[in-house]
Design brief:
Radius of gyration of chain B: 19 Å
Number of helices of chain B: 8
Order of helices and strands of chain A: HHHHHHHHHHH
CATH superfamily of chain A: MetI-like
Largest interface: A-B, 22 and 21 residues
Distance between the termini of chain B: 21 Å
Oligomer: heterodimer
Largest sheet of chain B: 6 strands, mixed
Distance between the termini of chain A: 9 Å
Structural class of chain B: alpha/beta
Structural class of chain A: mainly alpha
Strand order of the largest sheet of chain B: 6-7-8-3-9-10
CATH architecture of chain A: Orthogonal Bundle
Strand content of chain B: 15-25%
CATH topology of chain A: MetI-like fold
Helix content of chain B: 25-40%
Radius of gyration of chain A: 23 Å
Number of domains of chain A: 1
Order of helices and strands of chain B: HEEEHEEEHHHEHEHEEH
Shape of chain A: flat
Helix content of chain A: over 70%
Number of helices of chain A: 11
Shape of chain B: globular
Largest sheet of chain A: none
Number of strands of chain A: 0
């Protein structure tokens, strides 16, 4: 590729950052302009400037709330990943096991977490772990379905080749099934990282825990009661940014692990 | 269809050897009918001696791949027996006789380097890494890809990927090499090149090769013997010995003998595909020898 020869704004790598940034600048400018021009009161719509200012002034409360939410999200994500992978391995052991259990995985997925969360919060004593359980239930399904699909998506001839060479079950798993499943697994991780955050926020809303264990959702609730709308927006901004960072981290990890071999990672360039 | 058993005896009579050669492959009225009743292959009798290059030639649906997969042990015959060096396929692999299989597509692991791909059969057999790497180096040298051992398969062309697949087949130093239309997906120029290379390897390594193809020209060019098959139902319709000397060069393909063999095979396929009036002639077998 002759990217070097292209002018700066024509380079795909620059475009990938510059174009969304341009949209952001336009949107923020329009927002600021509307709020100032129409003289909207901050308890209806705060200006972007006020939102950032609140973020800085209220950082003590918001920062510690971010840490709480982040902790629940990361724990839930790890729990969902480990449990999801284990369940997938169980599923691919035999078609019967999958047939028997898969409907329940679907059941888990379609039951609204908001409806189940109160129960879980009653059953699990530790509030943090109660919220972790809720969030991991939300994040679990994509990992199960993607990893199971991946473990089954083996090129038939390649599998025959392993069979011809009398590969053991273990050799097939390590040398064939797991590498074949990795792209699917990472696809699942990307979806689940976002879902873990959503699950964590929903669980916090339902739990409504205050005090030292208060997360961002609690900050939003509180700010809503107090009509402290700028603070609400600031908390919302933090949640969105966390989601973006999580997604970017997963994308980076995917690239690192899959490297150059998988088509989904190379076809864009 | 009992032409071959007596054949073997006839061969043994004039020059009684101290140890009669054990045929590499014995297919004894082997047939394949799928559970749903589809008859993929009518009973086949075929004996392949060590060192032969036998091609199973036929249109799609003639059961040539099915037969090859049964030789490899990938498919179970629904009836009949199949022996490799006088042993059932499942009891083989006692290190004395090795079988390698090359698929129609390269079937490489996309995540592994060329070297790891070629090393796979050795890794699966638990060969120590250093010894394995040395043999991988030799195998890649044979197919002319030693400079690409660190590359990923996707960085290679189709022909090069196929060579990697062949190197993986050769790395175990097999006695019997089974190839299922290995060059079918390649362009003609590359195919000719690989055909020539394959013949060189066959001669050098004293392999026994069973090769599946739908190309009459490729079959005549490569083989010591061509087994012509026909479809609906899958069956053997003719066997032709290509009594031409090796090494064969592409010049062989423009000789009159070459055309005669090709014509003969073409004719027997046409005869077999023509509407049949009498089912009893079904497996009339002309041991046509020019």
């Amino acid at each position: 590729m002759s990217t070097k020869a292209l002018p700066l704004m024509r380079q795909p790598r620059v475009q990938r950052i510059a174009y969304p940034a341009l949209v952001a600048i336009v949107l923020i400018a329009a927002w600021q302009g509307l709020v100032t021009g129409m003289d909207l009161p901050p308890y209806l719509v705060p200006s972007p400037f006020l939102m950032v200012k609140t973020l800085v002034t209220d950082w003590r409360a918001l920062g510690s709330a971010l840490l709480v939410t982040l902790e629940i999200t990361v724990l839930a994500f790890v729990v969902a990943t480990v449990a999801g992978v284990l369940i997938s391995f169980l599923f691919v052991q035999s078609k019967q096991i999958e047939t028997a259990l898969f409907p329940y995985a679907v059941l888990l997925q379609v039951t609204p977490i908001v409806a189940v969360a109160p129960l879980i919060i009653i059953w699990v004593k530790n509030p943090t772990w109660a919220m972790v359980v809720c969030a991991s239930l939300v994040a679990l399904f994509p990992i199960i379905s993607n990893t199971t699909l991946g473990l089954r998506s083996i090129e038939p001839d390649l599998q025959s080749y392993f069979k011809l060479n009398r590969a053991t079950r273990w050799q097939q798993l390590v040398r064939l099934r797991i590498p074949s499943a990795l792209p699917y697994f990472f696809g699942g991780l990307r979806i689940s990282s976002g879902l873990a955050l959503i699950g964590a926020v929903v669980a916090e809303f339902v739990a409504g825990t205050g005090g030292s264990g208060a997360g961002l959702a609690y900050q939003i609730l509180q700010a809503g009661f107090q009509l402290n709308i700028p603070r609400m927006f600031a908390a919302l901004l933090l949640i969105s940014l966390t989601g973006v960072v999580l997604f970017a981290a997963m994308a980076w990890l995917t690239r690192r692990v899959l490297g150059p071999w998988h088509a989904s990672e190379t076809s864009h360039d | 269809m009992n032409l071959h058993e007596p054949d073997a005896r006839v061969l043994a009579v004039p020059a009684p050897p101290a140890t009669p050669a054990v045929p590499a492959v014995e297919i004894l009225s082997t047939e394949k009918t799928y559970p749903d009743g589809t008859r993929a292959l009518q009973p086949v009798d075929l004996v392949i001696e060590e060192g032969e290059f036998v091609t199973l030639l036929g249109p799609s649906g003639c059961g040539k791949s099915t037969l090859l997969k049964m030789i490899a042990g990938l498919l179970e015959p629904s009836d009949g027996r199949l022996l490799l060096w006088r042993r059932p396929v499942a009891e083989l692999h006692s290190c004395t006789h090795k079988v390698a299989f090359v698929f129609q597509s390269p079937t490489l692991m996309p995540w592994a380097s060329v070297q790891s791909n070629v090393r796979l059969p050795l890794d699966l057999a638990g060969v120590p890494r250093r010894q394995a790497n040395a043999r991988v180096g030799e195998a890649l040298e044979l197919v002319g890809l030693h400079k690409f051992s660190g590359a990923l398969p996707r960085a290679l062309s189709g022909g090069m990927q196929m060579r990697v697949s062949i190197a993986r087949g050769l790395v175990t130093q097999p006695d019997l090499l089974l190839m299922d239309e290995p060059f079918g997906a390649l362009d003609e120029i590359t195919r000719h090149k690989l055909d020539t290379e394959l013949l060189a390897l066959w001669a050098q390594k004293k392999l026994t090769v069973v090769f599946v193809t739908h190309s009459i020209h490729e079959a005549v060019f490569l083989s010591t013997r061509v087994v012509m098959m026909a479809a609906r139902p899958g069956r053997v319709v003719d066997e032709v010995r290509i009594a031409e000397p090796y090494p064969r060069t592409p010049d062989f393909m423009v000789t009159p003998q070459f055309s005669r063999y090709a014509k003969q095979l073409q004719d027997s396929l046409l005869r077999a595909s023509a509407p049949r009036y009498d089912d009893s002639h079904d497996d009339s077998h002309h041991e046509a020898q020019p």
